[in-house]
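Reply to thread "Modeling small-molecule complexes from scratch"

Following up on the discussion above, here's a worked example others can learn from. I took a protein sequence and the SMILES for zinc ion and predicted the complex. Inputs first:
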Amino acid sequence: MDDASVQYYKRNVNDLIARELRHRLDLWQHLDADGGALKVKPQQLRDLGIYGGAQGIWVDKKRTGKLTADGVGISVGLLHTGTSYSDDLSEDGVLYHYPSTQRAGERDVAEVNSTKAAGNLGLPLFVITPGPTSGERRVRLAWIEDWDDRARIFLIRFGGHRVNPLLQNLQDDLPFELLSQRSRRTTATDARVGQQRFKFLVIKRYGPACAVCGIDLMDVLDAAHLCPKEENGSDDPRNGLVLCALHHRAFDAKLFVVDPETTKIEFKAGGPRGDDLRITRISLAHLSSQPHRKALEWRWAKWTAARGEAAKA
Ligand SMILES: [Zn+2]
């Protein structure tokens, strides 16, 4: 193609994408009228072209195939049944795991790429979850905020407006806030807002493996706060660490702590040792990124204070 043709082609594709955006927002308005998105019949989803699949990611290839250079199209609907990873859904977003169904013909890869395309092109999609009865579905308008190929997850935000993509690489240059700007009086609902985002950022920063035992199964990995939410700790990923469920619990029970000076793991005096706790690392030195020193210092100060109290008693 010569330059003029390329320009012509680009303009046309941009028109098509603008039209696709309009189409999706119109669908959403139609569905959301009178709270209808809370209980939608599967047949209605098919009629509207929102979801036509049986599982996972649905791409309307006929309509969207021409919008991507490789022809794979752009995801329209994502089904989250909650039977696995139920903790990854909250009112403001979902951590959506890449499909791994072993179907023939690279279908999993194609579906992941179609979903990335929605993020790259700034197009919303629809997240479908179980409705109030087994014959109904709940639908939310959603935007791809980011993804992590190592952990194989998408960070997806619900809402009427496009979210700004994350500026991951700038993270270490941003000033660090140990404490949250929000008021201390947070309700249980508030505490869940931003939960998926925090987990996503922490796993993307440190990698999808427990920092102290190396287990790398997403089903058992948590994003632990160093300065916890109850103490008004912020959701900056540098205030977090990836821990498995066992070690998250042991950490919260103050059975071990990280020395901010050396990042060595220290155990509670008279408590279980590394072997007892199945901790296989002696420090955090193996991590490619470290938590913020201020966060480790905060945790350490609490730990030594508690040790002082115990000694006095
Ligand atoms: Zn662990």
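What I'd highlight from this example: The chain has a mean pLDDT of 88. The first strand starts at residue 57 and ends at 59. Questions welcome below.
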